[in-house]
Amino acid sequence: MKQLSGIDATFLYMETDQTPMHVAGLTLYDLPKGFRGSFHKHFTDFFKGRVHLIPIFGMKLAKAMWQVDHPGWVDAGELDFDYHIQSAKLPKPGNQKQLEEMVATLHAERLDRKKPLWQFTVIEGLEGRQAALYSKVHHAAVDGGAGMVITKALYDVTDQPREVDPPEPKKPTRKPSDLERAILGLSDVAANMARQQLTIMENIPKMLGQVSDMVAPVLAGKVGLPQLLAPRTPFNVTVEAKRSYAARSISLSDVKAIGKATGTKLNDVVMAITSGAARAYLTKRQELPDAALVAFVPISMREVGNSDINNQVFGMNVPLATNYGDPLKRLKKIAQESGASKTLAGSVKDAAPKDFTLIGAPTLLPGLMQLYGATKLADHIPQAVNMCISNTQGPPFPLFCAGAKVTALYPVSIATHGVALNVTVQSYLDHLDFGITADHKAMPDADVFADLIVASFEDLKQAVKKAQGKEPA
Predict the structure, then answer these.
(1) Cα–Cα dist 268/221, whole Å
(2) Closest Cα to residue 116, out of 133, 134, 138, 135?
């Protein structure tokens, strides 16, 4: 049994019926020329020959003895493809709005923990001879970087699928007895605790040095104190089971041009676009706070070339300058705040724990999460952030799946208690694909927010042109 790290297991412990902890994608395909019949059957036959390229798809959870420590991954045996690859069809006309509503419904359903923690739904009936794939995998198994490993296994760079070597025969293994499991489990707990205590002791000098480096610029007056708490918004509530979802695309070339013209990074521009949409959305509802909204922005700790299927993420909080009306001023303020936050996060991320062992965690931590939701504490206590904004680099070249051309790669992410809005972005070819995932009660109209993303992008683009002395197109 390969035990989950503390970070991976935390996504299991955080999961309730109201807070599913899977991440997902919505992929759009142009059907192969002349294709007839069921794309679900066509895709299933294709993927059966690829599934072994993603080892985690053949693993399921196994509890530690007496649940004294984190669970682990064990071989799942023969896969139930009737469960893992579902079929759905949109009613006519099969438009974008209908697709988004279906994805919102599918995304609210938890994965079955008795099976490998992934499920695909092939969606047919889209207008324009298209099909879609909604693919969800539990966050305990993957982060954004690991998700790219799945993408590489699933897709090809031409419309002719590449030859894939068949899986190697599995070697028979003896199932340990209950006594052996108990001894191994207790020894693993003891070893994990000893290893992590040693790691903490080794990191103390580094941590003290990094705290000193972090505080020195503040004491010297070079940077100000970070914004520690976010203002209250409709997004900072206890979430319910129902989800809202929308997807939109904008030009990647134009976003890069904005960054080049303003001396800012692509991620700064993405945050500024999202900030403009949040400002407009809350202004329309007469709920825009005076203080700037704050976003949690994940940072990958994955080294170049690392293809491990697990979570390797850290994060930073970035004020979004929603108290600035001018798009350019907002962008420059965000770039300034983002740079300071990244410096701060970079100074402590190496010392941050990447694993933890807590005796009884599989029982204690889910109970605390249930209590947090049941008492609706998120409706009352201050939050550090208002939303999550994540940006992942995707392939700049065309992808194909089972002969069908991929036209968009929209992310579908997580909403949780206190942070009911998640904006996740992935680049593909020459566009940025935005996926807006929200609690339905907090934001029933994710499509309105998505349209404001596009409008905010256009406002920023025109502001840059005006600043350069060019007439708007």
Answers:
(1) 24
(2) 138
Provide the whole-model pTM. Answer: 0.86
Angle, vertex CA 127, rays to CA 126 and CA 132, nearest 5:
30
Predicted confidence (pLDDT) per residue in 81-139, tens digit:
999 999 999 999 999 999 999 999 999 999 999 999 999 999 999 999 999 999 999 99
For the chain, the structural domain boundaries read: 224-393+414-467
pLDDT band of 196, cuts 50, 70, 90: very low
Percentage of the residues of the chain whose pLDDT score is greater than 70:
79
d(CA 455, CA 449): 10
Q: Which helix (H) or strand (E) holds 62?
A: strand 59-62
When computed from its CA atoms, the radius of gyration of the chain, rounded to whole angstroms, is: 23
Positions marked active-site? 139
The Cβ-side half-sphere exposure at 244, using a 13 Å CA radius, reads 20
Task: For helices 266-284 and 327-348, give the axis angle rounded to 10 degrees.
Answer: 120
Residues in contact with 104: Cβ distance below 8 Å, sequence separation at least 6, in sequence order? 242, 243, 244, 245, 440, 446
Q: How far apart are CA 459 and CA 130, in angstroms?
A: 31
Cα 309 from chain centroid (whole Å): 14
- Looking at domain 224-393+414-467, its CATH class is alpha beta
